[in-house]
Amino acid sequence: MxxxxxxxxxxxxxxxxxxxxxxLDEIVLCERCNAIADSELCAICRDDGRTERVLCIVEEPxxxxxxxxxxxxxxxxxVLHGVLSPLQGIGPDELKLAGLxxxxxxxxVEEVILATSPTVEGEATAAYLAxxxxxxxxxxxxxxxGVPVGADLEWADEATMTQALEGRREY
Length: 171
What we know:
Layout: H1 2-7, H2 10-26, E1 28-29, E2 36-37, H3 43-46, E3 54-58, H4 61-68, E4 76-79, H5 100-105, E5 111-115, H6 120-133, E6 139-142, H7 158-166
Parallel strand pairs: 3-4, 3-5, 5-6
Antiparallel strand pairs: 1-2
């Protein structure tokens, strides 16, 4: 980054500096879902066209962007800002869980989708949340995992192939 800044024009550096200052002054976390926002609620939480019945839990704000790129998900989000990692001293108290139980217990949520990464920490977080969120008739699901689109099966490792086989669906 330093080399880029040294090669950039003074005007480019001024614009970048201004953009960083604006970012620090004007960007906040959504009060409802913890996503990046420019006001109390993010654009997704303000969108009346989205359903309250499906809630997708993700690790970080950039995961919301990845799911939104599909243009298929029409529910709401909850961003944890991390995953459980006992070795790094990250327990449930370090995650942004405030409000999550209230949202699920509020009666409008019918399904919670656990969309954490397939890492040891992501899986541990998903397992913890699954136990925590099984409230009444709320269905708790996990995103499918396995072979990515366009991949060659010969390069898939054993764990990926196992998940792909376990997560198969009728064609």
